[in-house]
Design brief:
Layout (H helix, E strand, L loop, with lengths): L5 E6 L4 H12 L11 H12 L4 E8 L2 E13 L2 E11 L8 H15 L4 E4 L6 H8 L16
Parallel strand pairs: 4-5
Antiparallel strand pairs: 1-2, 2-3, 3-4
Helix pairs in contact: 1-2
Length: 151
């Protein structure tokens, strides 16, 4: 993939507006269909992801427009420092073009330079992201279980 048209960089709270636009545009569409219509709740969620001391957020720009985001945090663990990705997305019309793979490679290269040894993330096995991560060398943790409890 030709990368001269892309600008990859760390971003944060100053870019909250464009992050909100991309995030809601992707995740309120198929196959996720998340209801982020409550703007206050969305802003709180984004602040949780990009506004903390250990937050680590990257953006991928094409011709000055945000087309990819990775939002997460640095986690210090006994086996080394990890980048825990909470959300990663590529603008819907750019998916399937190699843009996501390019973005992941840039993230990996950059976080290695920070001394981060592992990326950890979760996704559902029924969405296209599952196969995307497998294709990009992520291994499924079959012994890992997620729990939730509705209150």
């Amino acid at each position: 993939m030709e990368n001269k048209m892309f600008d990859f960089r760390r971003i944060g709270t100053n870019e909250k507006e464009i992050i909100r636009e991309l995030f809601s545009g992707v995740f309120m569409s198929e196959p996720w269909n998340d209801d982020w219509s409550d703007r206050e709740q969305l802003d709180l969620y984004l602040s949780d992801l990009i506004g903390q001391n250990n937050s680590l957020t990257y953006g991928l720009f094409e011709n000055g427009e945000l087309i990819g985001i990775s939002m997460g945090h640095i986690k210090h663990w006994y086996s080394g420092t990890e980048y825990y990705i909470e959300e990663l997305c590529i603008r819907t019309d750019k998916q399937g073009s190699g843009t996501g793979t390019y973005f992941l490679k840039e993230i990996e290269k950059t976080i290695k330079e920070l001394g981060i040894v592992r990326i950890f993330l979760q996704t559902e096995n029924t969405v296209p992201a599952y196969r995307f991560y497998q294709k990009n060398g992520f291994q499924e943790l079959t012994e890992h279980v997620s729990f939730t409890k509705q209150l």
